[in-house]
Amino acid sequence: MKHQPVNTGLMSFGMSGRIFHAPFLHFHPGFSFSAVTERHEKKVNQFYPQVKSYDTPDSLIHDPDLELIVVNTPNNTHFDYAKQALLAGKNVLIEKPFVTSVAETKELFDVSERLGLQVLAYQNRRWDSDFQSVKYVVENGKLGKLIEVHFRFDRYKTNIEQKQFKEEPIPGSGLAYNLGPHLLDQVISLFGKPLRCHKTTTANRANSKVDDYIFFHFIYPDNLNVYVYGSLLVARPMPAFVLHGTKASYIKDRTDVQEKQLDGGMSPFDPAYGLEPPGVEGELTVIDTAGKKTIERPASLRGNYSGLYDAVYRQLRDKEPFPVSREHTLWQMEILEQGNS
Q: What is the β-pairing status of strands 241-245 and 248-252?
């Protein structure tokens, strides 16, 4: 049975709206990119002439033709806008971080349940090419029993950004709530909820008011230890993924090209979209039962953020469970909300 496209409104047409959402809403056959909020500069019609541009979020939320609203505004506004959209009868897709507390998360889930609507967490980096390759190596058993796993997201940015929601000590600010959700969701999607978690955050840039370094240590059953790092002061980034098991080790750099391709105007349905360049494949080191070491470079898998929007469409039209489950979202918020240990 063929369904009608999902009429969708985008709360903001800034960087995330222009790169991570608008191309998929425009090109994906399951969606109709219908409206956006632009408070100041009106740019959307340069790219998408058919899209309505509203001056205020309230006007977007109350557009009677919209079925889904993407909340991609500053972190500390996610809860209020998402709740308003739900009360206006809209389904909601919320950018990371989902909201800023466990209490807000539970309230949105309760409201959506009461109204028979969906509130979904946007976690696009499950569909990064590098993480897809890591997931494949883990799930096909090549590593044996996992012992030690390291995930990291390194950048080098000494400056203090002008965006107050990232740099002022308000709910949802700092690196833990900016890059942390990407890393935590990848860990949770692979390994589930940890038995225990130790968290460390520090501020190291001159005049920084928020954390710019994060470290999480997760303890899982069967002696699996998972270490997660993020920093804004790493001049020479380390490999993004390092995994050691009883049979092999796997090392992979952060090599996904989707953001760069989308920023350059490539369609997510271009044949070249999501394909890593040759030579950046992960390295799999295997030692067999005779002690012989071999090094393999498995082909990288294709990155595909369309997979997230495929999942949104199937949830809304076919009632298929969304892969970023409510439990996953709650576990992530519990980890983010806990204090340093």
A: antiparallel
- For residue 21, give the DSSP letter: I
Q: Are residues 64 and 190 in the same domain?
A: no
Phi, psi of 251 (to 5 degrees): -130, 130
Question: How far is it, in rounded angstroms, from Cα 333 to Cα 105?
Answer: 8
User: Does some domain include residue 261?
Assistant: no
Same domain, 108 and 224: no
The answer to whether position 340 is within a domain reads no
In the structure encoding, which two tokens stand for residue 325, read together? Answer: 């489950």
What tokens does 334 get?
Answer: 């519990």
* 200 and 63 within one domain: no
Element (H, E) at 172: none
Same-domain check for residues 33 and 57: yes
- pLDDT, one tens digit per residue, over 109-166 is 999 999 999 999 999 999 999 999 999 999 999 999 999 999 999 999 999 988 878 8
> What DSSP state is assigned to residue 66?
-
Q: Alpha helices, DSSP H only, in 62-171?
A: 78-87, 102-115, 129-139, 164-167
Same-domain status, 120 and 148: no
Please check whether residue 262 lies inside any domain of the structure. no
Nearest to 305 by CA among 130, 129, 135: 129
Q: What CA–CA distance (Å, rounded) separates 285 from 266?
A: 35
Q: Is the pLDDT of residue 8 over 60?
A: yes
Instruction: Please state whether beta strands 68-71 and 248-252 pair in parallel, antiparallel, or not at all (unpaired).
Output: unpaired
For residues 182 and 84, what is the distance between their CA atoms, to the nearest angstrom? 26
Domain that holds residue 285: 129-255+269-302
How many distinct structural domains can be found in the chain?
2
How many angstroms separate the CA atoms of 39 and 52, rounded? 13
Tens digits of residue pLDDT in 278-327: 999 999 999 988 889 999 999 999 999 999 999 999 999 999 999 999 99
- Structure confidence at residue 340 as a pLDDT band (50, 70, 90): confident
pLDDT digits (tens, 9 = 90+) for 76-90: 999 999 999 999 999
Count of other CB atoms within 10 angstroms of residue 220: 17
CATH number for 233: 3.30.360.10
